[in-house]
Amino acid sequence: AVVSTQSTGEVVGVDMTSEQIEVANQYIQYHTEKFGYDKPNVSFVQGYIDNLVGAGLKPDHFDIAVSNCVVNLTPDKKAVLSEVYKVLKPGGELYFSDVYTDTDLSDEIRKDKVLWGECISG
Q1: I want to staple 79 with a disulfide (CB 3.0 to 4.6 A). Which of 50, 67, 90, 99 is the partner?
Q2: Count of CB atoms within 10 A of residue 71's CB?
Q3: pLDDT, average across residues 87-113
């Protein structure tokens, strides 16, 4: 994402854990220098995909949203889509890689913590 936006674009990473944000922040300067940018075009914020505006992302601001195996971990899928829609510019796009089923899961399976942790339910 950092490369495709070039030096004038902006990439914002969101994670729910402070530990992951801390790790990501350690590599900002490395990638800024590697791609020859004068200043970083990436930042990271702690938050949840079902509350992106609450995490500080600007409404109607982004061209693309990318999620990698996060939607299935969030209980309220409609809230996820609603929040992503809020932060995308008109015509913006969501790309996601996730576990998907076209069948309804029982509440027992959907709420099973072991299966949820293994990204099988949620």
Answers
A1: 50
A2: 20
A3: 87
**Token pair in block for residue 76:** 């309220």
Residue-wise burial string across 2-33, b where 16 or more C-beta atoms lie within 10 A, e elsewhere: beeeeeeeebbbbbeeeeebeeeeeebeeebe
| Closest to 48 measured CA to CA, from 23, 79, 93, 27 | 79
User: Is-contact 86 52, C-beta < 8 A?
Assistant: yes
- Rg (alpha carbons) of the chain, rounded to whole number: 16
Q: Is residue 1 scored above 60 in pLDDT?
A: no
pTM: 0.80
Q: Annotate 12-75 with three-state secondary structure.
A: EEEECCHHHHHHHHCCHHHHHHHCCCCCCCEEEEECCHHHCCCCCCCCCCEEEEEEECCHHHCC
Mean pLDDT of 1-11: 66
Task: Report whether 52 contacts 87 (CB < 8 A).
Answer: yes
